[in-house]
Amino acid sequence: AQSVTQLGSHVSVSEGALVLLRCNYSSSVPPYLFWYVQYPNQGLQLLLKYTSAATLVKGINDFEAEFKKSKTSFHLTKPSAHMSDAAEYFCAVGGAGGGADGLTFGKGTHLIIQP
Amino acid sequence: DSGVTQTPKHLITATGQRVTLRCSPRSGDLSVYWYQQSLDQGLQFLIQYYNGEERAKGNILERFSAQQFPDLHSELNLSSLELGDSALYFCASSVGPGAGNTIYFGEGSWLTVV
What we know:
By secondary structure, chain A is mainly β.
């Protein structure tokens, strides 16, 4: 079975500061890993995904994430936070195919940007 | 805009009733997924269809059912509704099966059961 743990239900950073959202996963097969963002009253938008091509994945809006197999982590970072980054962020894991192709999501991290 | 269209956007209904949520996937996508988002359970995978056939089931209640039609749109039927079914229901789609495919989400259907 797969699972995702997001550390910190709320993260607060100052505008211009580094954003770090933590995600650890558990998977019995080589994982596909995703970060999605949900703005208020909107659907989920894909930020980036890891599919084993490269351990450092770059996404939209200057977000990136690094896959660390030894630590089973896939933390999301952004060098400089903007007010528009305030949203809910979800880490998700998908299997290697067969059975359920749906994603298993973490409980989400609410990112707060302080002016 | 993800290209996934869901209707209705908001729905209020009474306990015991039945509702149908509709989803049109992105053009060219053959796989459709349904998810439920609630405050206590978070985002839960319900069911997946691929090219008209059920491919995978997640935490879907027996009171819920879904189908994917030949034109690839999908419907999620929720019956004997309970207060606890109040949630945001997402439809999502991807080109093919397999978890490596990017899954695109619609904006969701808000269901309130009173």
